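Hi U.,

Before I forget, here's the chain from the pilot set. I'm dumping it here mostly so it's searchable later in email.
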Amino acid sequence: SVFHLQVDFRISDSTLTAFAHEVSQGYFKNPFHNYAHAWSVFQACTHMLYTLQGAANTFMCRVDVLSLLVGALCHDIGHPGTNNMFQQKICSDIALLYNDVSILENHH
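Structure:
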């Protein structure tokens, strides 16, 4: 790893595995906003960081990089797999909670 985050933050293999498993449990089996999509976003962020290497190190500290990658993996946890209009039309709990304003964006 270019960033050595697991070493820098003393994250054991078992902790990393347990974290990934817990994250997977938060995703629904949607056609798109699912756990596989989360890993695609994670990989895209990793690729960008790797490509930027030196530049990324000048404007991001290690905790920023770790936060970016955790955020990439977790960004769609709990996504219902529908859009805002659908949520609004069915008067879903989250549509009511956010008063029909940017429902899914506010949800996560």
